[in-house]
Automatic annotation (TrEMBL):
InterPro entries: NUDIX_hydrolase-like_dom_sf (IPR015797), NUDIX_hydrolase_CS (IPR020084), NUDIX_hydrolase_dom (IPR000086)
Claim: Hydrolase is one of the keywords in the record: yes
Protein name: NUDIX domain-containing protein
Keyword Methyltransferase set for record: no
Domain of life: Bacteria
Domain Nudix hydrolase: 1-114
Necessary cofactors: Mg(2+)
Keyword annotations of the record: Hydrolase
Gene3D superfamilies according to UniProt: Nucleoside Triphosphate Pyrophosphohydrolase (3.90.79.10)
Amino acid sequence: MRHGFSSRSQGHRYAGWLDWCREGFWATPGGSLEGGEDHATAILRELGEELGIDETAIELGVHLANRSADHLAGGREVRQVERYFLARVSPADVIPAYATQPDNIREYRWWTET
């Protein structure tokens, strides 16, 4: 199961969605559940691993949506299930230098609301 996170900052100057670019495509941060983890624990871990965000800086919000897709992985058909959650963080708390698993992230940006 892969998690997707729609991170949103509600500061005085910024409101938007946080996505990152890896290997030529944009995606929300995410990953799989590890043994014994619930979704909230995985969200905190993944945001730290991929974007260097300290878990104490994350305000975890509601479950927003689900998505699933069937595709080939390693020559066999798998179903990927994604759950998207709202997480409030300050742009200043995104510190890629602290990421332990940056996944070749080339860039990240906040997408502003229209």
